[in-house]
Amino acid sequence: MGKGLNIMDQRHMQWMLGFCNGARIIVIDTLSRVHHLDENSNGDMAQLVSRLEQIAYLTGASVLYLHHVNKNSAREGQTGQQQAARGASALIDNARWCGFVERMTEDKAELLSDRTFDRRPIGNDRRKYFLRFGSSKINYGEDLDDRWYERQAEGVLIPVELVSAKQENAKKGRATNVYTG
Question: Which residue has the higher pLDDT, 79 or 9?
Answer without folding.
Answer: 9
